[in-house]
Design a protein that fits this description.
Length: 296
């Protein structure tokens, strides 16, 4: 009889404790939700403006679009894609961003594994030199890099900008992945070596599968940087037919300076893919960054 009376009592106390924890965290959650909504407001306004006609954008704010009569149109997107080379710019951005993300991650993964688990003379000094490259401004290297690519007769081509983005992304990529690899269980890797596994087998069978959070975090950083890059693309790719979306949108500013609705449509098109990639990989993002930043 006593046990039956104690069960509802225990359930009530458990519910009360959970409610107390929820109420204690309510101010923090309210603050975080408010910050998120405030952060999303410009993007939401950009999307709304891209769905309005020229007269509405010029004469009223985007928030008035939700007052009757509701007048939204996809004509801005159609005009930008068909008449402003935005579709070609999107394809060019993919051609640049995908290899510009995959190549540095692959190279950095090999280098980070060597710095983390392989013994060779000058390892620590070389790692410090690689990390020191993080403080070198990109602007200082553009002319030497362009001259080097010109001597190799590949300036203005997609392989040239792939190499440039690989070089610019390697220092941070090696730093992040090396710190993550060091945090992996030493006993697991040592047991693999004792069983006769080679470095390549350990790298592909153990290190890479265990490092998915760090690789996903690095992929987000590198892809966003390459996708949003304007300066490197302007310097290395002189061919308008190979221009990415950032260069195309820059040209729209001068040609469509008075047609803001077209600029908002072009800007939102350039945001779609990075948003999809970020939300698809966000569950790995915090885990990879915290592990790579704290442990080393």
């Amino acid at each position: 009889m006593k046990k039956e009376l104690m069960k509802p009592r225990a359930g009530f106390e458990d519910f009360a404790s959970r409610l107390k924890i929820l109420l204690s965290r309510f101010p923090l959650h309210f603050f975080l939700v408010g910050i998120a909504l405030l952060w999303m407001t410009p993007a939401f306004g950009l999307l709304t403006s891209s769905l309005r006609d020229a007269a509405a954008v010029a004469n009223s704010g985007w928030w008035t679009a939700f007052q009757p009569p509701f007048e939204f149109t996809l004509e801005n997107y159609q005009q930008v894609i068909t008449q402003s080379r935005m579709g070609a710019g999107f394809i060019n951005s993919l051609i640049i961003a995908i290899p510009g993300t995959v190549i540095p991650i692959l190279v950095a993964a090999f280098a980070a594994f060597a710095f983390a688990w392989m013994r060779f003379p000058g390892r620590d000094i070389l790692f410090i030199l690689v990390v020191a490259l993080l403080i070198v401004p990109v602007q200082m290297t553009l002319i030497p890099v362009l001259r080097l690519l010109t001597d190799l007769k590949i300036a203005g081509t997609f392989p040239a900008i792939w190499l440039a983005h690989t070089a610019y992304g390697l220092p941070f990529a090696i730093f992040l992945l090396r710190n993550f690899f060091v945090a992996l269980p030493r006993e697991l890797l040592e047991s693999a070596y004792l069983d006769g596994a080679s470095n390549m087998r350990v790298f592909f069978r153990l290190v890479l599968p265990l490092s998915v959070p760090a690789l996903a975090s690095l992929a987000i950083f590198q892809f966003l940087w390459v996708w949003n890059d304007l300066l490197v693309a302007l310097v290395i790719l002189q061919d308008p037919g190979k221009a990415p979306m950032t260069v195309t949108i820059t040209n729209l500013v001068s040609s469509y300076g008075a047609q803001w609705q077209l600029l908002t449509s072009a800007a939102f098109i350039s945001m779609i893919l990075p948003l999809v990639i970020f939300f698809a990989l966000q569950r790995y993002f915090v885990q990879g960054i915290l592990t790579g930043a704290v442990k080393g």
